[in-house]
């Protein structure tokens, strides 16, 4: 095991780590995009969660009617939460995977498929596309993360 | 301080980091498991959030009745969100802690108790066990993370 | 590119990384604080999500009335979720940014503004302050993260 991990510090300074940094930044930026998308739908659908957000729309009772849920806003929020649930494991497991010394081509394959699947998932959720588009794109990203977790545990398992 | 952190790069290549990688991967996989558990309850309870998920169950009005919340589904979702709220701090603070050069035995104690507490928390939430099972398992994981944060700030504080 | 990243392993052992570790630990601890704040409001407002949490308040029907949502509890929960949505990108992009060799003063500026903005955001959400306090504090943290992401992609882009 020491042999496999011995050159770990040198591995940070390599192309696998650059690829991890690139794709992680891309999927995190994609996730961050859900915040302005939520704001856009809240404003255009006039559906807010906080009283202080509706003061520009009227006073007293006339503003209260904008404190409501809207199907489009809720859809974007579910999509955002699904990103959190799936990108957080990628962030952690992907970092450990990148430090485990995988082949560059294998690592790129994992990172590219994950990023592509999450971007497709967002389109499938927001358009929305008919199922199983959203289910499949979710499953592909999930499977990539499991595959990286398997490689990490095979390399460093230390209980 | 330079002395304490001087050998940081070498520390990555050691057993504390392997232990961090192992337990982080385990708790992230455990968190990921909540997604198929949610899907299982959505399908068996016929309680969905998106119209496109109900098309296989019927057409028009007959499918609409499956767009509803279900107590079991909501319970799994709360458990999943609680994982996010607690495993994200472990992911970040645990990594920094592992890089701070703790004793291997101390680090293993922290990682093992955290992972055990989060697994217990999930059982306590989903069975559900009577309180204070869920509260205590949550508090133990929380205290472990605070303990690691204290060690990190004591070692590297740089404001 | 090799030149820019060549000394990456050495960079971990430096003041930028210590600053990252400090501010990341601070914002994660701040986020963790939302859990006891939620518990405080659930107990004082007697508004719970799980039947097993209400057993100490009465039996049968008399306990059921405490299974409800409360505006103050929901406000804290939205604030907590907003933390997750914004601190997770900071955790990942900030780590990669710290490894990209920024100037110490520039890095400190990013980390300090982000941490300050998130702390202000929590106060603006929980007091609550009139808008645009919350919106602006959110936007400042968001802009800092985008700025760090730009630096990461400019330094390591590897598609």
From TrEMBL, chains A, B, C:
GO terms for cellular component: endoplasmic reticulum membrane; mitochondrial outer membrane. It is an enzyme of class 2 (transferase). The chain crosses the membrane at residues 20-41, 87-115. SUPFAM superfamilies: MAPEG domain-like. The keyword Ubl conjugation does not apply. It is a multi-pass membrane protein. Keywords: Acetylation, Endoplasmic reticulum, Membrane, Mitochondrion, Mitochondrion outer membrane, Transferase, Transmembrane, Transmembrane helix. It is found in: Endoplasmic reticulum membrane; Mitochondrion outer membrane. Pfam families: MAPEG. Its EC number is 2.5.1.18. GO terms for molecular function: glutathione transferase activity. Gene3D superfamilies: Membrane associated eicosanoid/glutathione metabolism-like domain. It catalyses: RX + glutathione = an S-substituted glutathione + a halide anion + H(+). Homotrimer; The trimer binds only one molecule of glutathione. Belongs to the MAPEG family. Conjugation of reduced glutathione to a wide number of exogenous and endogenous hydrophobic electrophiles. This is Microsomal glutathione S-transferase 1. It comes from Pampusana beccarii (Western bronze ground-dove). The gene is Mgst1.
